[in-house]
Structures are given as structure tokens and as C-alpha cells.
Amino acid sequence: MTTSPERGLALVTGASSGIGYELARLFAADGYDVIVTATSLDGLQSTIEAVSATGVQAIAVAADLTSYEGVESLVAAIQGVGRPLDAAALNAGVGLGGYFVGGTALEDELDMIQLNAVSYVHLTKRLLPDMVARGAGRLLYTASISGTMPTPYETVYGATKAFVISFAEAVKSEIKDSGVSITLLMPGQVDTKFWHRAHMDTNKLGLGEKAAPSKVAKEGYEAMKDGKDRIVAGMTSSKLIGNVINNLAPDTVKADLHARDAKPDSGLEQ
Predict the structure, then answer these.
(1) Which residue of 35, 133, 144, 249 could cross-link 59, Cys pair, CB 3.0 to 4.6 Å?
(2) 122 Cβ contact partners less than 8 Å away, ≥ 6 residues apart
(3) Is residue 1 part of a domain?
(4) 211: which strand partners?
């Protein structure tokens, strides 16, 4: 199967599972050919099958977005398709839980900053100019309600998401009359592999209720289609925290509330 210039072309990063997998399916259902990327092609097989089943093409790209060279290789693959990119969901990201002092490793935190924040800047810098020149395009950034509060025991993770929120809003202000939209997807807890990979299986957040990734992706995708500024997605409790509490409470209070639920082993306490 070859790509069709009559179809739109979309990009989804972090597309191997979770929210990214669901976003890829949504783009495909709307008739987009979809460029899907993750660190390995093996991890993308289920996504490729789901996208291809709709009759569009899945273009799989293995790229390590924690490195400059990895991001550049993805950009080259996008350009190699030979068609303009109509939409991009920058979704790749990881978490990391634990004690900042005496717990988490600096190398892991720096890799997380590269993936969760630097790659978003890098890809936006490469992809946005063409969209602005055409006067059309949609960008969806997966952030988090964690970006609206200090996040003890996820200290660096929350900071990366705060960066994404600030960055997206600043860029959007600069291009507000360009015809290109930027939407922030800001979920709370989502039922994905995030918690295990972040070593957060035993805290209250990791063991607590979570939203289905299909629900979160759908809410974000619809907000992107509507050109909305942002959407706090997922559970009703997440919407309350993201839309109300975090807009009213001081940072010290928000930090203490988050620490209570994110502290290692807090979910095992009686």
C-alpha cells in the first residue's frame, strides 16, 4: 500500500501503546495516513496493524527521541514521504518516580528531560514552519495536569510537563493568526504502562483509579479537531484538579497534596 496525496498525513510519537496507540487509531479512522514512531519497530506492530486495518497506510519509524540525532532521523523520514504534514501529535514521554535525593538517577532524569521537553521543542522547530507557510496544520501536545503543580516524588517529571505547557502557549501566541492550531492534552492518571515504567507501582497514584487511554485520546483528539487551547482529560477527579483546584490553591498546598499520593509505598500504607 502506498500513501495517497488525497489523504491527510499525520504524525504520532510514542505510538506503540497507551494514548499514542489510541491517537494513531483515531487519525486512521478519520482517513489520515499515519506516521507512527517509537524506539523500536517491534513495539509498533500492533499499531501498524490497527492503522492499516482501516485502509490507510501506517508508516513506521524507529527513532530514539532522547537524542538530537534520533529526532533528526524522524524529521528526515517525515520529509522523505514527500507530502506536507497536516497534523502532529507529540505524545512520546516517560515518567520517573522516587526520592530526588538518594533515589532517582541523574541519567534517567536527563533522558526524561530530553524526551518530554527537548524533543517537543526540536520537533516543533522542524515541523511548524512548513505548517505556518501553508497556513494550515494542527499540533497536539500531550502534557499533564502534573504540569500545573509541583510534583514531589516525581520532581523532574512534573517540571517537564510544566515546560511543555508554557512552551506551547508561548508558541501559540506567536502564530495565532497563522491558521495553525496548538492544543494541549492534559490528562490525570491513565491506565497505561507509565506507572510500572516510572517505578510507581506502590504509591497511591499508581494503585489508584485510572482513566482508559482510549477515553483520554478521544477527548484530546476532538479538542485538537476543534482547535481548542487545551483539554483536561480523563476522570472527573482529574478534571476537577486540573480545571479548578490547581488554579486556586497555592503551590505549597498543591505540592503537599501531590506528595501524599506520590510518595513511594504510600499505596501500601494501612
Answers:
(1) 35
(2) 68, 71
(3) no
(4) 190
Close Cβ partners of 188 (under 8 Å, ≥ 6 residues apart):
144, 145, 211, 232, 233, 234, 235, 237, 238, 239, 241, 242
The three-class DSSP label of residue 63 is coil
DSSP 17: S
- Phi and psi at 14, nearest 5°, equal 60, 45
Decide if 217 is inside a domain: yes
Q: What are the pLDDT digits (tens) for 181-232?
A: 999 999 999 999 999 999 999 999 999 999 999 999 999 999 999 999 999 9
Q: Rounded CA gap, 27 and 37, in Å?
A: 14
pTM flag (> 0.90): yes
**Catalytic site positions:** 157
pLDDT confidence of 134, banded at 50, 70, 90? Answer: very high
Give the integer Cα–Cα distance in Å for 104 and 118.
20
Range of the domain at 141: 9-268
**Structural domain includes residue 49:** yes
Please give the pLDDT value at position 30: 97
Q: Average the pLDDT over 116-128 and give the result.
A: 98
